[in-house]
Amino acid sequence: MALLHRNFPALPETDALLADLFDDERWTNFPFGNGRRFSMPAVNVLEHADRFEVEVAAPGLRKKDFRLQIDGGVLTISAETKEEHSQEAKTYTRREFNYRSFRRTFTLPDSVDAEQIRARYDGGILHLSLPKQEKARHLSSREIKIN
């Protein structure tokens, strides 16, 4: 069983609707958001015989910005960062805010050993290693004959 992505489990069409609404060129130069586009980080999932690897593309963040949580077989990867810049002049103060956050959730297969999950952040990529339980590593692939 592979990792399953679920951002809006109750309303799957909402994910596509929000992507269509916010992932549009007209939002690029909108006055708020410091000219940055709303985006959900891309995720790669690789399966090996002994583990899954998850790579989350999240450049510009720091290790302390991330939160990883497992609850009831669901892995949640989230991040939040806030920046504030201030520049004073004679008659005015100019402030710019930047707030970014995301949340991705994945249903873990029973074969994952949740106690052994490890994470590291390097070069703008969050790397997670999700080892499989020992008994799941030795399950071989086979074809099932239909009678």
UniProtKB/TrEMBL annotation:
Q: Which residues form the SHSP domain?
A: 34-147
Q: What family is this?
A: Belongs to the small heat shock protein (HSP20) family.
Any one Pfam family match given in the protein's UniProt record, by short name:
HSP20
Q: Which InterPro entries match?
A: A-crystallin/Hsp20_dom, HSP20-like_chaperone, Small_HSP
Q: Which SUPFAM superfamilies match?
A: HSP20-like chaperones
Q: Which Gene3D superfamilies match?
A: 2.60.40.790
Q: Give the top-rank taxon of the lineage listed in the UniProt record for this protein.
A: Bacteria
Q: What is this protein called?
A: HSP20 family protein
